[in-house]
Amino acid sequence: MTLAPIALFVYRRLAHTATAVEALVRNPEAQDTDLVVFSDAARDAASQADVAKVRSYIRSISGFRSTNVVERSANLGLANSIMDGVSRLCCERGSVIVIEDDLVVAPGFLEFMNAALIRYRDEEKVMQVSGYMFPVKHPEALKPIFLTRVPTSWGWATWDRAWKSMELDACALFDRLKKANALHDFDVAGSYIYSEMLQRQAAGELDSWAIRWYASMFLAGGLCVRPSGSLVANTGFDDTGVHCGTMTAFDVTLSKAIPLEFPKVIQEDERAIESMAEFFRAIRPSWLRLVLSSVKQRLRGATHLRR
Question: β-strand 103-105 against 95-100: which pairing, if any?
Fold first, then answer.
C-alpha cells in the first residue's frame, strides 16, 4: 500500500517542531512515509536566528522513508506556504497529509488518515479527512467515525480532486453564501463566527487559507470525515507563535483508540454537528476575545490570526 506523503510546515519554533516530528515518528507508518518539510523564510531580522535553528534541525530528521526539505527564500506567511505546499504534493502524489509545527499526533494518526484517504478516495462529496476533533461533551455518544460539513486545519488530509475546488477570492465566496441564504448553516446554526472570519479575510484583516477552504467545501456540498476521539492536539495556543495567543478551549486528550469502521452512507451526522454547535456556543465568548485581539494586532502590523 502506497502511503500519502506528509507536508510539515515550520517557521521559527524549534521546540514545537521537534515535538511534532517526534510524535509523527512514533507512528509505525512513518518509516514507510515520505516527509516534505516546508520551512518559511524569516519575516524580519529578529526571526532569522530562530529560523536558522529550525532549519538546522529539520535537515537532520530521520525515521521516515524519505525526508525532503523545502527552504523558502522569501517569507510567504502560513496561508501562502500551506496553499503552495498542498497544491504541489496533491499534484505530484494525488493526496497529502498536512501537519503544522505546533501539532502533536497520536501513534495511530497515520493509520487512520491513510485508511480514510483510501476509503473515500473516489467519493466526490468527501473532501477532507481530519485527525482533530473538538472536545465536545459526551463524545462517547457519537459514532467512532462520522461526517460533518466542518473541516479543521489541525492535522488533516485531502485529495487532488477535492483541493481543485479551493476558491481564493473571499469576497466571491461570501457573496455566494449570502445569495444562497446559507450563512446561518455555514456558521453551524449560528454557533460560530465562520462568516465573520470570511468577511475579515475579504477585508484584509485576516490571512487564512482555512476559512476559504471551508467556504469552498461548503459551497461544493463537501464533507469532512473525522473520529470522535481526537488524534491531534494543538499546542500552539501558548503565545509562542506568530498567529495565535493563549487559549485552552481547544485542548484535548489524544485518543488511544483507532477506529477504522467508516460510515458507508455519505451524509452529515446530525448528532455530531449538534455536539459541535453546542461546543462552539460554549466557547464563543473566549474565542471572540482572541479574534478581536488578533485583529487589532494585525491592524498594528504585528501579527495574523492563526487558522
Answer: unpaired
Q: Is residue 1 part of a domain?
A: no
Start-to-end Cα distance in the chain: 32
Q: How far apart are CA 15 and CA 4, in angstroms?
A: 26
Name the residue among 215, 171, 250, 210 with its Cα closest to residue 78: 210
* Structure confidence by residue, pLDDT tens digits, 205-218: 999 999 999 999 99
The CATH number of the domain holding residue 164 is 3.90.550.10
Between CA 176 and CA 182 the distance in angstroms is 9
What's the total number of domains in the chain? 1
The residue count of the chain comes to 307
Residue 304 lies in a domain: no
Whole-structure pTM value: 0.91
The CB-side HSE value for 5 (13 A sphere, CA atoms) comes to 23
